[in-house]
Specification:
Radius of gyration: 16 Å
Low-confidence stretches: none
Strand content: over 45%
Strand order of the largest sheet: 1-12-3-8-9-10-5-6
Mean pLDDT: 87
Helix content: under 10%
Distance between the termini: 12 Å
Number of strands: 12
Oligomer: single chain
Length: about 170
């Protein structure tokens, strides 16, 4: 017998006006979550972050990243004080980008939470991030936001999927 669908769309939000944050909650019964963002940024130099359960305490979010544009590659890492980084333009000027964020084992209450993120944009910038939220709390909500005063522009689309164990 063939397995059923494992990706289930939980929420889709297409912005009808500019906004600083997009939040999701009330998801359960899945092993993992996948967040897909087709975004339009308000300016170059913007970065996108996500916090879990409203926690923005410094030191709980850490990351490692690799970034490239077809001719130059860089890497880095550290901690983030406003949430888990999902990527950023790093001075590039493209206004449209795509983020795919896989959040593993989000409901487990005995392990820290990890995620894998892929960011790409039309001008060729690509980033891959590995993130860790140093908390054993189950993730019950997530909020996506830009740094500083940047906003997500009208037409940006945010979709959250639940993944059931096959």
């Amino acid at each position: 017998m063939a397995a059923g669908f494992t990706y289930e769309p939980l929420y889709t939000n297409t912005l009808i006006s500019n906004t600083a944050t997009v939040s999701f909650s009330s998801f359960s019964g899945y092993t993992d979550l996948v967040l897909v963002i087709n975004g339009i940024m308000s300016t170059s130099g913007a970065s996108v972050y996500m916090d879990f359960n409203g926690v923005i305490t410094g030191g709980l979010y850490s990351y490692t990243l690799i970034r490239g544009n077809g001719s130059t590659a860089t890497s880095g890492g550290g901690s983030a004080s406003i949430g888990e980084p999902l990527g950023g333009t790093n001075g590039y000027t493209a206004s449209r980008y795509t983020i795919v964020c896989n959040i593993q084992d989000y409901a487990n209450t005995t392990t820290y939470k990890s995620s894998l993120v892929r960011w790409s944009q039309a001008d060729g910038l690509t980033e891959v991030l590995v993130n860790l939220w140093a908390s054993t709390a189950a993730i019950t909500s997530l909020t996506v936001k830009n740094n500083d005063t940047h906003t997500f522009l009208t037409g940006s689309t945010f979709t959250l999927y639940g993944i059931k164990a096959a």
